[in-house]
TrEMBL record:
Residues 21-96 form the MoaB/Mog domain. Pfam families: MoCF_biosynth (PF00994). InterPro entries: CinA, MoaB/Mog-like_dom_sf, MoaB/Mog_dom. This is MoaB/Mog domain-containing protein. It comes from Gonium pectorale.
Length: 96
């Protein structure tokens, strides 16, 4: 059982689909914006039997985004899901 499954109050089924979430944004990391998407998505995935195995918080950096996506993909396997959140604002630093 992953830590996320334990924290969500139950065990994911053996062989359950796996997911990772990459949260992008300097504003999230600095605390100027509160991340409400991660708890919502974690609860939704758990209710659907998907094991959220990794959440990465990263800055608005093309290099960091690329590395985080590769890391997330490696953790969920070829049939898993990788979600992204943030990084799509109208400012120059949002590069996704």
């Amino acid at each position: 059982m992953s830590a996320s499954a334990a924290a969500a109050g139950g065990a994911a089924a053996a062989g359950a689909p796996r997911a990772a979430l990459v949260v992008i944004g300097d504003e999230i990391l600095s605390g100027s914006v509160v991340d409400t998407n991660t708890p919502w998505l974690a609860k939704l995935l758990h209710s659907r039997g998907v094991d959220l195995v990794r959440v990465l918080y990263i800055p608005d950096s093309r290099t960091e985004i690329r590395e985080a996506l590769l890391d997330a993909r490696s953790r969920v396997g070829p049939s898993g899901f990788v979600f992204t959140s943030g990084g799509i604002g109208p400012t120059h630093d949002d590069v996704t």
